[in-house]
């Protein structure tokens, strides 16, 4: 089993419920165990400003799935929750699941880059990650989480109630 950190985000169709549904689906993934979940955070959108604020979190998943198999499962969860993939990046969406870290692996595949690109500049990724990751976490590329946090201000984030991360039951079937 390897520890994988997954970023979750939503700004459409009841974002907190979207994240709870995604967390339940992650908890039900085969060959995997949902180990930890950060608080929920509200954040300003990247890209077009004429969209609702996002709700974000990070989950720790222990899995024996291969990276691309896990990516397929994450995309299946997104689709089951109404995600529509469009050519335009950073637009509104029901659910976005991003593999941030996959154990101590560096992955550079056409479909998957890990550590996740630009995570060092995204407070809505780093602060929830820091809640559930070991304080001394070093990314596979050698960067320390503490150094990334020091260079990325908390601005634009709002930590939501800690009791808002309860998992709801969903019916997601992924091939």
TrEMBL record:
Membrane-spanning residues: none
EC number: 2.7.6.3
SUPFAM superfamilies with a match to the protein in the record: 6-hydroxymethyl-7,8-dihydropterin pyrophosphokinase, HPPK
The UniProt record lists the keyword ATP-binding: yes
GO molecular function: 2-amino-4-hydroxy-6-hydroxymethyldihydropteridine diphosphokinase activity; ATP binding; kinase activity
GO biological process terms on file: folic acid biosynthetic process; tetrahydrofolate biosynthetic process
UniProt entry keywords in alphabetical sequence: ATP-binding, Folate biosynthesis, Kinase, Nucleotide-binding, Transferase
Protein name: 2-amino-4-hydroxy-6-hydroxymethyldihydropteridine pyrophosphokinase
Originating species: Stutzerimonas stutzeri (Pseudomonas stutzeri)
Gene: folK
């Amino acid at each position: 089993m390897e520890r994988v950190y997954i970023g979750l985000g939503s700004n459409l169709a009841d974002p907190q419920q979207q994240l709870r549904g995604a967390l339940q689906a992650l908890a039900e993934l085969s060959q995997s165990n949902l180990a930890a979940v950060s608080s929920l955070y509200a954040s300003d959108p990247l890209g077009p400003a004429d969209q609702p604020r996002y709700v974000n979190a990070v989950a720790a998943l222990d899995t024996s799935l291969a990276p691309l198999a896990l990516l397929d499962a994450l995309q299946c969860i997104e689709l089951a929750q109404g995600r529509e993939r469009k050519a335009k990046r950073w637009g509104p969406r029901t659910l976005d699941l991003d593999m941030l870290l996959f154990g101590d692996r560096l992955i550079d595949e056409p479909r998957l880059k890990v550590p996740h690109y630009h995570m060092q500049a995204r407070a809505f990724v780093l602060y929830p990650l820091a809640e559930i990751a070991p304080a001394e976490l070093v990314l596979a590329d050698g960067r320390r989480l503490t150094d990334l946090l020091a260079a990325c201000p908390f601005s634009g984030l709002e930590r939501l109630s800690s009791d808002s991360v309860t998992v709801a039951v969903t019916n997601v079937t992924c091939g």
